[in-house]
């Protein structure tokens, strides 16, 4: 019992949760603006796509790999699908499915390059990152339908609006979606073969192969799952951004990856959790939205995020060193 | 010993440039422990990899339980009951014991893995084998010995009929080896066929029924263990007689000066208050069981791990060693037991490896003086008789013994007078071992001082002028070679263990 208690307190997810609470408390104490309901909505709007990317990339990171193509990929899918909706009257539902398919496809290419052709993940996904950015740049700036336009229903996935104009009340229903997605992926990570083999590949790929598991198949699947989440993120991005701009998106993946590491995925792979990713992303989102309220602008947010990340990785390293000493 | 369960006949396998297996035959009976022996590169592991489907054979037949079979991967072999317990442990450290045992064939409840059932089944399995391991523990948290037990339990849970042990004892303590043998005997009782690959002659005599020897990819012969001597086996392995008598007298002159003095060295649990002296031209053997703290002592002395306290004197002068750089400056070189990880850069040439630690001596301004580098490298290739076409050969293409010589050259070029050899002959075949021994003896005779950490009793008794024994992080004995016996060393090495 006692041992269990100690384990909870040394669990990085728990520490990160405390950080989330502390940050919220500090920002709320220092700024009246931060206390507003609209701030929460703003935080969530820009948080959804970010979290979806992070949940997806948690899996490649647990295998000890990485996916750099999710940021530019996300923007690229949103642009292509948005253009088709605008110019070709593609139903929004089909556009959403298209986003997921494009994400899955990019993920599949990444997976094959990494698991079958043995390219280092950094390099393979750097290629697809450049390719998706290039394709995205060929498109024109495309707004998806706004909430009041035909096909604007998809906004309601994330934010349900009752009434119109200034009197409208907004409900962040996306929060429920996020919780469901996170719990679902946490379950998949811990209680299905796909999840278990994801951990196994990250922990000891050679041994996993020798256990008679078709590692290539699962390794590809890891990147496909990550790609699908980039597709989901594309929909959330379109919902949050008035106009999707071509050529953007580079760098967003790094924030997402940073969030995952803050959430406690081991830098060497083999360990991680989706709940941790949720907490890690919450920290980064709080910094991003909260710091301007206390007078620190975007550049400060970057610096502080970097420092937080160092802290998070240090926890991981110290834990490992302790484990090594125990041995 | 029952009927034959597995026969491999005329197995042939070539890799580009190497005829790895040349019409090799091998058989195992039910209830038999059959040793497979040979020097490194003799083809033992290749043969077993052909059997379990990791490699495809070029020709030959495998008959298992009366039927001709070909396994295409380890999974097929496992399902048929032929399981290999790998030399490098085949386990996933971040998963639990139960998750490891049932990996690839998890019990499912729909989409969900039934962890509870896996834990219960693991517990049953351990009870059956009289092993005390918590199925919910993380693999990483277990000792190497326990990890090995899990591997065996995993093999048995596959309803194995033939189990192959590939150098199972390499990383185990004496106690753990005993436990392992108890399990192997139990498996033999149950009429399983067991293949036991090992380099350790003593174990072969204790545990096996028959011995098959391979050399250079060919079958040499099969002996009944009870009816042969160690020498018979060694002669078959190397095709020549090896001299392996213990040293009877120290070769160090009584007035040899002390070159290294260590006083009250402390570094964590594994190094507690260790003091010793090393004389010029002496080979000081560090003996003890696995985990006695010998490597840790050497690493703390060398500055590779932090130490809490302790004084180090080189040639009578007190020096501060806080990093390997300090140690090298003081003339101490350390040859790690894990060559590939700490000793050499395998994908680079002999030259690049030899001068790596002292590049600043081979430069013209900002540029490397490649000619001087090559000259010094060639000098030591000749001096140590390293077998290589030239100094530009990549280290990865050298045999284990010759790789070891490259590491030795690296430290000699550095002008190190004190050399710490950590398990100098691990993973090196019998022939090359002898050469390393001769080389060490020569270095000592030339006035270098050597600390030799070794887990092989024969090696300790053969090479050392004096033996320091450790147990659980403490020095438990210091024995002049004239008084040393295996029994005395073992007694001191197990002193603190209840």
Q: How would the global form of chain A be characterised?
A: globular
> Main beta sheet of chain B, described?
6 strands, mixed
Approximate helicity band of chain A: over 70%
SSE class of chain B: alpha/beta
Please estimate the helix content of chain B: 25-40%
Based on DSSP secondary structure assignment, what is the total number of beta strands of chain B? Answer: 24
Radius of gyration of chain B: 25 Å
The helix tally of chain A amounts to 12
Mean pLDDT rating of chain A:
88
Radius of gyration of chain A: 20 Å
| Cα shape of chain B | globular
CATH architecture of the largest domain in chain B: 3-Layer(aba) Sandwich
CATH superfamily of the largest domain in chain B: P-loop containing nucleotide triphosphate hydrolases
CATH classification, class level of chain A: Mainly Alpha
Biggest β-sheet of chain A, characterized?
Answer: 2 strands, antiparallel
Structural class of chain A: mainly alpha
Unreliably modeled segments of chain A: none
A few lines on this structure:
The complex is a heterodimer of chains A (327) and B (498). Chain A has helices spanning 2-10, 12-30, 37-62, 70-88, 92-116, 121-138, 174-191, 193-210, 215-240, 252-262, 274-290, 298-326, and strands at residues 160-162, 169-171.
Structure notes:
- In chain A, 72% of the residues lie in helices and 2% in strands.
- Chain A is globular and about 60 Å long.
- Chain A has helices spanning 2-10, 12-30, 37-62, 70-88, 92-116, 121-138, 174-191, 193-210, 215-240, 252-262, 274-290, 298-326, and strands spanning 160-162, 169-171.
- In chain A, helix 2 (12-30) packs parallel to helix 11 (274-290) and helix 10 packs parallel to helix 12.
- Chain A has one domain: ABC transporter involved in vitamin B12 uptake, BtuC (Orthogonal Bundle), CATH 1.10.3470.
- With 327 residues, chain A is mainly alpha-helical.
- The longest helix of chain A is centred in the last third of the chain and has 29 residues, at 298-326.
- In chain A, strands 1-2 form a two-stranded antiparallel ribbon.
- Chain B has 498 residues and is an alpha/beta fold.
- In chain B, 33% of the residues lie in helices and 27% in strands.
- Chain B contains 17 helices and 24 strands.
- In chain B, the strands form 6 sheets. Chain B has a 6-stranded mixed β-sheet with strand order 6-9-10-3-11-12, sandwiched between helices. A 6-stranded mixed β-sheet of chain B has the order 18-21-22-15-23-24, sandwiched between helices. Chain B has a 4-stranded antiparallel β-sheet with strand order 2-1-4-5, covered by helices on one side.
- The radius of gyration of chain B is 25 Å and the shape is globular.
- The model of chain B has no long low-confidence stretch (mean pLDDT 86).
- Chain A binds chain B through residues 191-193, 196, 199-200, 202-204, 206-208, 210-213, 266, 270-271, 323, 325-327, and chain B through 54, 73-75, 78, 86, 88-95, 99, 103-104, 106, 108, 111-113, 115, 140-141, 143, 268.
């Amino acid at each position: 019992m006692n041992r269990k208690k100690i384990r909870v307190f040394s669990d990085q997810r728990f520490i990160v949760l405390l950080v989330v609470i502390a940050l919220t408390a500090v920002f709320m104490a220092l700024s009246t603006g931060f206390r507003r309901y609209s701030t929460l909505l703003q935080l969530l709007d820009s948080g959804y796509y970010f979290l979806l990317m992070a949940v997806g990339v948690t899996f490649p990171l647990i295998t000890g790999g990485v996916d750099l193509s999710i940021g530019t990929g996300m923007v690229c899918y949103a642009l292509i699908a948005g253009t088709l909706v605008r110019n070709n009257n593609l139903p929004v539902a089909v556009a959403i499915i298209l986003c997921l398919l494009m994400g899955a496809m990019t993920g599949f290419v990444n997976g094959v390059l990494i698991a079958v052709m043995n390219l280092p993940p950094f390099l393979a996904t750097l290629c697809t990152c450049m390719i998706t950015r290039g394709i995205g740049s060929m498109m024109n700036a495309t707004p998806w339908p706004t909430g009041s336009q035909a096909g604007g229903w998809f906004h309601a996935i994330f934010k349900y609006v009752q009434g119109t104009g200034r009197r409208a009340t907004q409900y962040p229903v996306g929060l429920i979606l996020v919780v469901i997605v996170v719990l679902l992926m946490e379950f998949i990570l811990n209680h299905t073969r796909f999840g278990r083999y994801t951990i196994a590949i990250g922990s000891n790929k050679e041994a996993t192969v020798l256990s008679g598991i078709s590692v290539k198949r699962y390794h590809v699947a890891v990147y496909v799952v990550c790609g699908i989440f980039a597709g989901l993120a594309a929909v959330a991005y379109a919902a949050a951004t008035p106009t999707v701009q071509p050529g953007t998106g580079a760098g967003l993946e790094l924030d997402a990856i940073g969030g995952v590491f803050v959430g406690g995925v081991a830098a060497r792979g083999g360990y991680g959790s989706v709940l941790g990713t949720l907490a890690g992303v919450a920290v980064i989102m709080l910094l991003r939205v909260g710091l301007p309220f206390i007078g620190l602008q975007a550049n400060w947010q970057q610096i502080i995020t970097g420092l937080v990340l160092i802290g998070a990785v240090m926890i991981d390293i110290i834990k490992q060193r302790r484990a090594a000493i125990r041995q | 010993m029952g009927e034959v369960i597995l026969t491999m006949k005329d197995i042939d396998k070539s890799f580009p440039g190497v005829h790895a297996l040349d019409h090799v035959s091998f058989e195992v009976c039910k209830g038999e422990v059959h040793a497979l022996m040979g020097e490194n590169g003799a083809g033992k592991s290749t043969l077993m990899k052909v059997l379990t489907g990791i490699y495809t054979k070029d020709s030959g037949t495998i008959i298992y339980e009366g039927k001709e079979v070909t396994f295409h991967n380890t999974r097929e072999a496992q399902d048929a009951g032929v399981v290999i317990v790998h030399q490098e442990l085949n386990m996933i450290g971040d998963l639990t014991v139960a998750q490891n045992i049932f990996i690839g064939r998890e019990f499912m409840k729909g989409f969900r893995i039934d962890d509870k059932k896996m834990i219960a089944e693991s517990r049953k399995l351990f009870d059956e084998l009289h092993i005390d391991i918590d199925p919910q523990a993380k693999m990483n948290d277990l000792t190497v010995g326990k990890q090995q037990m899990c591997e065996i339990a995993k093999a048995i849970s596959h309803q194995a009929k033939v189990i192959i042990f590939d150098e199972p004892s390499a990383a185990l303590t004496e106690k753990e080896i005993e436990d392992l043998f108890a399990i192997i005997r139990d498996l033999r009782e149950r009429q399983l066929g067991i293949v036991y690959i090992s380099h350790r002659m003593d174990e072969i005599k204790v545990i096996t029924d028959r011995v098959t020897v391979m050399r250079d990819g060919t079958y040499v012969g099969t002996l009944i263990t009870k009816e042969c001597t160690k020498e018979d086996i060694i002669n078959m392995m190397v095709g020549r007689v090896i001299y392996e008598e213990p040293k009877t007298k120290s070769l160090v002159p009584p007035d040899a000066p002390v070159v290294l003095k260590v006083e009250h060295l402390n570094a964590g649990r594994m190094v507690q208050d260790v003091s010793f002296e090393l004389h010029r031209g002496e080979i000081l053997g560090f003996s003890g069981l696995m985990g006695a703290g010998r490597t840790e002592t050497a690493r703390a002395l060398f500055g590779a791990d932090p130490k809490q306290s302790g004084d180090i004197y080189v040639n009578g002068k007190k020096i501060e060693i806080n990093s390997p750089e300090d140690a090298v400056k003081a003339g101490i070189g350390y040859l790690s037991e894990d060559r590939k990880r700490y000793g050499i850069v395998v994908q680079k040439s002999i030259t690049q490896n030899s001068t790596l630690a002292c590049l600043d001596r081979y430069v013209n301004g900002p540029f490397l003086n490649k000619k001087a580098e090559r000259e010094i490298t060639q000098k030591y290739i000749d001096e140590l008789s390293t077998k290589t076409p030239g100094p530009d050969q990549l280290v990865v293409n050298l045999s284990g013994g010759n790789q070891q010589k490259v590491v030795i050259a690296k430290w000699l070029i550095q002008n190190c007078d004190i050399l710490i050899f950590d398990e100098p002959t691990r993973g090196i075949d019998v022939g090359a071992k002898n050469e390393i021994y001769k080389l060490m003896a020569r270095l000592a005779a030339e006035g270098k001082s050597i600390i030799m950490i070794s887990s092989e009793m024969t090696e300790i008794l053969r090479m050392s002028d004096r033996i320091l024994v450790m147990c659980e992080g403490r020095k438990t004995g210091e024995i002049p070679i004239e008084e040393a016996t295996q029994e005395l060393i073992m007694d001191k090495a197990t002193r603190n263990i209840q």
